[in-house]
Amino acid sequence: RQLAQDLRSGLALGQIRPFYQVQVDARSFRVNGVEALARWHHPTRGILAPAHFLSIASSNGLVAELDDVVLKAVLSDMKSSASPLKGIRVSVNLSADRLDDPELTAKLDGYDIPPGRLSFELIETIFLDSLSDQVRQNIQAIKSFGIDIEIDDLGSGHASLLGLLELRPDRVKIDRQLVTPILQSVPSCRLVGSLVDIARALDMEVIAEGVETLEHANVLAALGVHTLQGYAFGRPQSFADLSARLDQEI
Ligand code: G
Ligand code: G
Ligand code: MN
Ligand code: NA
After folding, report:
1. Which CATH superfamily is domain 2-249 in?
2. Residue of the nearest CA to atom 20 in ligand 2?
3. Cys staple from 48: which of 28, 40, 200, 226, with CB 3.0 to 4.6 Å?
């Protein structure tokens, strides 16, 4: 209860801000995007990852507000002068709650969204039931704002091929659990290759998550994965640290 109260005020006070994890082109290893990941800068407990507050947010109806707070902070970071985010794509996680929210279009209307620069990561569970009319409508709205659609954690849950065919996302992110074993297991490796083929059939780009070593990176590149994300290229970091890092790369 106390934590839910803290979270409510933390959201209002700007204590929840995004960290950023880089994504790199699989051939050049150059940064081509970042994923924004919520962090709670708690006054006494330090910086908390979503594992410490996402379920509290969820059980108290605060997830949509969390998504909102993070999106606003991302848009502000994108606009700040000399922002390292200027030339790259930024992916923001969007909860199933938010995707099903009748207010989403009005919210997006209220923001100054730079077309072609932003993606929303949707979790696979949106496919659990057949897509609701509200979800369909919101997805059209998202696309009309020039925001890309990505399916997060592909392979761990429920994305049906029919769902992908209907939704036509711009990108899919292959779940870390499928990526980790590719060096030890030939079937795992082939499976990732097959997912790349499926993605290509639907004109989707592929991001591999949880890329922890350069050996993984090289195999994934050979399998045709477009973009890599994982500790091999960097952990989620503050906007200031990201700025410093990207300044160095140029
Ligand atoms: O940063 P970390 O890997 O601990 O994040 C764990 C999970 O929390 C991510 O996989 C993501 O699904 C979720 N998450 C992170 N930031 C956000 C956010 O802003 N909104 C929502 N809905 N989920 C988030
Ligand atoms: O949105 P999603 O749940 O996919 O968020 C990615 C999560 O995975 C974040 O919590 C991030 O901290 C974590 N993560 C990112 N890269 C790696 C990695 O290389 N290895 C592991 N174990 N976790 C990672
Ligand atoms: Mn994600
Ligand atoms: Na993910």
Report:
1. EAL domain (3.20.20.450)
2. 210
3. 40
Write out pLDDT tens, residues 78-111.
998 888 898 899 999 999 889 999 999 999 999 9
Please check whether residue 123 is in contact with residue 173, taking contact to mean a CB–CB distance below 8 angstroms. Answer: no
Q: Are the CB atoms for 47 and 25 separated by under 8 Å?
A: no
Q: How confident is the model over 54-71, as pLDDT tens digits?
A: 999 999 999 999 999 999
**Domain residue limits, the chain:** 2-249
Rounded to two decimals, the ipTM of the complex is 0.95
Residues around ligand 3, an ion, CB closer than 5 A: 93, 121, 152
Say if ligand 2 is within 6 A of residue 212 CB. yes
Report whether residue 85 contacts ligand 1, using a CB cutoff of 6 Å.
Answer: no
Cβ of 37 less than 6 Å from ligand 1: yes
Model's pTM, two decimal places? 0.96
Q: 3: CA distance to ligand 4 center in Å?
A: 25
Helices (H) and strands (E) in the chain, counts: 11, 9
